[in-house]
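User: What would this chain look like folded?
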Amino acid sequence: MRKTYGYIRLWPDETDADSQLITLREMQVSDKNIYIDRQTDDGCGCMQYHKLLKTLKANDLLYIKSLDALGSDYKEIGRQWRMITREKTADVVVLDIPQLDTRRGKTQFGTLVADLVLSMLEYVPGVEHTARRQKQMEGIASARRSGVRFGRPLMPLPDNFDQICGMWQRGEIKGQKAAELCHMSRASFYRKVHIWEERQENSGKKCVAAGEAEQIR
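Assistant: Here's the prediction, encoded as structure tokens.
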């Protein structure tokens, strides 16, 4: 036999549940089947909601005032909607949006309204993420065109880098020693040599690496 439940989640800026209680009673929901949580600023007050989920059975009916009773964002609302309509196979009525009544449009292939709402809830976060990502990329591109550099600033080459690089190329010192003289790691030294070589090439002074040059990355 179908049972009817009501769930109220009061957010920090809401203090009065009376109007929601009256509405649920008008929907013939008994007080013993109404679960109320009070959301706090420092955490999620969902104890009564979890009790409701344990009680809810297939074909039961749940009334909520609005979709945000199920969560604070689309992703969480979507998870809870899926839990109730797909896993619990219960029905949901959203009082603020009468069209969101999963009892409507049921076919032999499933619950039309429940599936449409779930699709919407799963679609919106992806669209929002893509839009945010696009705005970020456009902002970065605009900043770069304006000369803004991102990431850690490049460390200048030591004053004696040319001399040390020449000694290393001639085989007078090993790569590890050259890195120590430049006060950097061996990997950093090889990277700097690569940059230095490109600059030399651009200025017509190609630097021919020797010894351990194959380790440059």
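The first helix runs from residue 18 to 26. If you want, I can go into more detail on any region.
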